[in-house]
């Protein structure tokens, strides 16, 4: 079995097993966290920010879409594996004598960012070929953070409603306050923290320096822990302190991350064009196809044209061609930078074979429609 296939199987088996185990643990935890009615309400409220957040990260991922199975895997890892493991580690720390303040300000950030970041480490170890840079790291980190926040919010919302959070008698008013704070004002918190790890992993993939490939994810983890600790610590000083930290640090950091991600996304088009132009000079792809591959609107127009000219089958062929060309572009970009994976020649040949097999059966707007 080729190494890439073995790595993929190992990743799938490990992640699936841990997700199932984590789901069992969290099902038990949630079941003992409150009455069934409050848990249903908490789950529904916790789910409200999930769709918009996922949509934002999927939008960022449009130039070179990651496999849906891996994105879903990131969500499930965050929702079950990271939450369950973090609870276990924090329980050990509290049993060892850690105070509530120390747990909130130090233990929780350290354990939660480690358990969330573990998914990115597994990707880097076994599915490295799926990571093409910083933007991919941010997208996967975001998915893990969204999943983690969803499950954590269920616990917080149920505790607020049942009055078991130690902050009051509970009820609708407490539930509403917790919902506003966690689901409306700060649904981005966990994706933001873990995005630092994602950036570190993205830098590791694209770095030529061996030390940087190790230090970048570690540095990202440290920044994630620091941001998470600052966020948690702000709640210890009362509402006034929290909103000061929220307005002066966390919200600006989130806006800065958005700006950085948009900048990286905007640079994807130029990177793809340069890589495919070089690939075209090497005879790997027709130069006339490049404009239809590097622009998102042109891609959509090409798929629509294919469907109108040849029906669903032609559209599927166009999607397959575009997908192979996009993967070739990112792989060739890494080759030109000197950071290509060890199996880049084999992978590149696979993409070229797909392109050559499909190309006779597709045409772009303005080109002659092929006959079969």
UniProtKB/TrEMBL annotation:
Entry keywords, A to Z: Hydrolase, Membrane, Metalloprotease, Protease, Transmembrane, Transmembrane helix
Q: Is the keyword Transmembrane assigned to this protein? A: yes
UniProt-listed Pfam families: PrsW-protease
Q: Which GO terms describe its molecular function?
A: metallopeptidase activity
The highest taxon in the source lineage is Bacteria
Please name the InterPro entries in this protein's record: PrsW
Looking up PANTHER family in the UniProt record yields:
PROTEASE PRSW
Instruction: Give the transmembrane ranges.
Output: 9-33, 39-60, 72-92, 104-126, 138-159, 179-205, 212-231, 243-263
Per the UniProt entry, what species is this protein from, by scientific name? Answer: Nocardioides currus
What biological processes does GO assign it? proteolysis
Transferase as a keyword of this entry, yes or no, is no
Record's protein name: PrsW family intramembrane metalloprotease
């Amino acid at each position: 079995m080729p190494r890439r296939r073995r790595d993929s199987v190992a990743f799938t088996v490990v992640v699936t097993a841990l997700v199932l185990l984590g789901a069992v643990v969290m099902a038990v935890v949630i079941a003992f966290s409150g009455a069934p009615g409050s848990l249903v309400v908490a789950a529904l409220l916790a789910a409200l920010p999930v769709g918009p957040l996922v949509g934002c990260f999927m939008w960022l991922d449009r130039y070179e879409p990651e496999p849906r199975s891996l994105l879903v895997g990131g969500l499930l890892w965050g929702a079950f594996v990271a939450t369950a493991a973090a609870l276990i580690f924090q329980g050990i720390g509290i049993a060892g004598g850690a105070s509530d303040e120390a747990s909130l300000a130090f233990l929780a950030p350290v354990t939660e960012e480690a358990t969330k970041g573990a998914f990115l480490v597994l990707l880097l170890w076994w599915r490295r070929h799926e990571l093409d840079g910083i933007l991919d790291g941010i997208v996967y980190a975001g998915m893990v953070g969204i999943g983690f926040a969803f499950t954590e919010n269920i616990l917080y919302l149920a505790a607020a409603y049942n009055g078991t959070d130690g902050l009051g008698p509970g009820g609708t008013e407490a539930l509403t306050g917790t919902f506003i704070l966690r689901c409306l004002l700060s649904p981005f918190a966990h994706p933001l923290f873990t995005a630092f790890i994602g950036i570190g992993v993205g830098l590791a993939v694209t770095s030529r320096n061996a030390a940087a490939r190790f230090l970048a994810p570690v540095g990202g983890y440290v920044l994630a822990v620091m941001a998470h600790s600052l966020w948690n610590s702000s709640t210890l000083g009362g509402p006034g302190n929290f909103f000061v930290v929220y307005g002066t640090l966390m919200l600006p950091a989130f806006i800065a991350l958005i700006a950085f991600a948009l900048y990286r996304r905007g640079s994807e088009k130029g990177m793809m064009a340069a890589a495919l132009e070089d690939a075209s000079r090497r005879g790997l792809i027709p130069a006339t196809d490049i404009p239809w591959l590097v622009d998102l609107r042109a891609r959509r127009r090409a798929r629509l044209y294919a469907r109108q000219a040849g029906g669903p089958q032609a559209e599927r062929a166009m999607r397959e061609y575009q997908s192979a060309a996009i993967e070739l572009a990112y792989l060739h970009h890494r080759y030109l930078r000197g950071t290509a994976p060890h199996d880049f020649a084999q992978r590149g040949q696979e993409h070229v074979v797909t392109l050559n097999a499909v190309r006779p059966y597709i045409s772009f707007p303005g080109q002659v429609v092929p006959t079969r």
